[in-house]
Amino acid sequence: MVEKPYPVISITDHDEPLEFVAHSPTLLHALEAANIDVPYQCREGFCGACRAQLNEGKITYNQEPLAFVREGEVLLCCSRPLSNIKITLL
Fold first, then answer.
1. How remote is the C-alpha of 44 from its chain's centroid?
2. How far apart are CA 89 and CA 67, in angstroms?
3. What's the pLDDT tens digit per position in 26-84?
4. Residue 34 class from Cβ within 10 Å (0-12 exposed, 13-18 middle, 19+ buried)?
5. 25-35, pLDDT tens digit by residue?
């Protein structure tokens, strides 16, 4: 059986892309595990503090966020990538 590769997270202004491993529940967890400082408050999609620009790729939400999310943005605390993604931290 061929193992499916993990999605890759590329971040503007960061040299090394990250792999989103299966045991990471959200993009926020994956970034924190890589020691990338990301603002957040609620971790549940209520406040929008972890907002980032989604430049490329597809994500899915673990639960639908209550915070307003503009077209082309993503909340890192409650989402995970479905493909390789490129983001800009706001």
1. 13
2. 17
3. 999 999 999 999 999 999 999 999 999 999 999 999 999 999 999 999 999 999 999 99
4. middle
5. 999 999 999 99
**Spatial distance between the Cα atoms of 45 and 25, rounded to a whole number of angstroms:** 14
Tell me the DSSP string of 49-74.
TTEEEEEES-EEESS--SS---TTEE
Nearest to 54 by CA among 90, 5, 18: 90
- The third-level CATH classification (topology) of the domain covering 8-89 is Ubiquitin-like (UB roll) (3.10.20)
